[in-house]
Design goal:
Largest sheet: 5 strands, mixed
Number of helices: 14
Strand order of the largest sheet: 10-12-13-15-14
Structural class: alpha+beta
Order of helices and strands: HHEEEEEEEEHHHHHHHHEHHEEHEEHEE
Distance between the termini: 62 Å
Radius of gyration: 34 Å
């Protein structure tokens, strides 16, 4: 292994303007070593003890995310990593592994003071390297944070869309099979002789039954009793499919009194086929209603996505109701809310004036804060999320409160720091609340947090006139 010279150091683009004597001092005060392929130069959360210059070979830097290694950089010859002057980082935020036998030059961190005092141009070059690194890493991590958030929302949205989509397919299949039975029903009633006025009365009674709201207020016991009562009555009158008809009548709020009213206008000999014909219409109505409700649910979710992401809109500030973004965020996170058995309490002041804001970015605020609150309560298997909006002087104040375990007092002052996270490795980037803070400041607002066990509240105040 040849000793690194000042000339070689000057061939590094970041150090090309540094005087040779300063580079020679750097070489003389550094240690060269070889890291075998597969070995680690540094590991996540290890103390950062030196500035590292890659002489030969390659080093892969990665972080664990969802138990998988995600590569964030590959350091090749003449790359610089590790500690840099004025950096406040004390622990490695990633793991560096040699992809092949790699030679490195390590400049010990304890000599940084002497470097800063006596070697201005070298210090300046390394500080410039640090700012470039922060800029590049922040850009990559911001993109990653957005992708992580998008992944969470996509997973939840897939669950939300799956149920109504399956209901549409199931309903359409059932309706097709049901419609195939219509000729059989038609044959049974086509030979029935009934006065026109009686037909009109029965038809009107049927449509009145169809227009009733579906009976969702009955308890399971009440429903069972109602169905048993109707089944007994139908069997008493020798009606075919009595149990099915009783179930559908109950769905539409039908009672024994309704059946007796139908009997008054239907000849006894034809009561069974006519009631089965009415039941056929109830089944058709129920299937069409289920398909309609499922389709509307899908349309609502798609509209929520468009509003949430601010699709089809420009990127300038626009006037908006603060509640719309919050409600759409809750819609997007609905699967996670249900999975965590979370109750939502909304205390919205609907008389608040609209604000001027970057709508898509503001939705990131609600998403990050609410998502963190849901994560905090998840360990308990249940929780209460309270969202309150109110006027606060010239601002609109949004308070988001959860009854999770709270944020430790020693952690609280750091939660808005870039890259700080209390989540385990791979679960978070530490950029969520930093992004929130930046967006709120961009809107000339402020964000505050107070926390004790069982009560953590984030308060976001945004000026009505930004």
């Amino acid at each position: 292994m040849n000793k690194v010279s000042a000339g070689w150091l000057q061939s590094i683009d970041a150090l090309k303007d540094v005087p040779v004597d300063q580079l020679q001092w750097l070489a003389d005060n550094s240690v060269q070593e070889t890291v075998p392929a597969g070995e680690y130069l540094f590991k996540v959360n290890d103390p950062i003890t030196s500035t590292i210059f890659i002489i030969s070979g390659r080093v892969r830097a990665f972080i664990l995310q969802n138990q998988e290694a995600r590569e964030i950089a590959v350091f090749e010859p003449k790359n610089i990593t590790g500690h840099l002057p004025y950096s406040r980082g004390n622990l490695a935020i990633a793991t560096g592994q040699a992809l092949e036998d790699t030679e490195v030059l390590r400049f010990p961190r304890e000599k940084a003071g002497e470097l800063i005092r006596n070697h201005f141009e070298l210090t300046q070059a390394l500080v410039h390297q640090m700012t470039n690194r922060v800029r590049e890493f922040t850009s990559n991590q911001l993109q990653n944070e957005k992708m992580v958030a998008l992944g969470k929302l996509s997973a939840g949205l897939a669950h939300e869309l799956n149920n109504p989509a399956a209901a549409v397919v199931r309903g359409a299949t059932s309706l097709r099979e049901h419609l195939h039975l219509i000729p059989e029903y038609f044959k049974k009633i086509s030979t029935i002789q009934m006065p026109a006025e009686k037909v009109d009365i029965v038809t009107d009674m049927m449509f009145n039954l169809l227009r009733r709201p579906r009976n969702a207020t009955l308890s399971l016991m009440q429903r069972t009793d109602r169905e048993d009562e109707l089944t007994d009555l139908l069997e008493q009158y020798n009606v075919e499919n009595a149990a099915e008809i009783a179930e559908n009548f109950t769905d539409f709020g039908g009672t024994a009194e309704d059946l007796e009213a139908f009997r008054q206008h239907i000849p006894a000999a034809h009561f069974s086929p006519v009631i089965n014909w009415i039941n056929n219409n109830l089944v058709t109505e129920k299937m069409v209603t289920d398909i309609d409700e499922a389709s509307r649910r899908i349309a609502t979710l798609i509209n929520s996505v468009k509003v949430f992401t601010h699709m089809d809109q420009g990127h300038d500030q626009q006037t908006a109701d603060i509640h719309e973004g919050i409600i759409n965020t809750l819609t997007m996170l609905q699967h996670k809310i249900r999975k965590g058995n979370i109750s939502i309490e909304q205390q919205f002041n609907t008389g608040l004036p609209p604000i001027k804001a970057y709508i898509g970015e503001l939705n990131q605020v609600w998403t990050n804060v609410i998502d963190n609150a849901l994560d905090a309560m998840a360990a308990n298997g249940q929780g209460i999320l309270s969202i309150k909006t109110e006027k606060d002087g010239d601002c609109i104040k949004v308070s988001i409160t959860d009854n999770g375990p709270g944020i430790p007092a020693d952690v609280l002052p750091r939660i808005f720091d870039p890259f700080f996270t209390t989540k385990e490795v791979g679960k978070g980037t530490g950029l969520g609340l930093d992004i929130v803070s930046q967006i709120v400041r961009q809107h000339k607002g402020n964000i505050k947090v107070q926390s004790v066990p069982g009560n953590t509240q984030f308060s976001v105040s945004l000026p009505v006139k930004a």
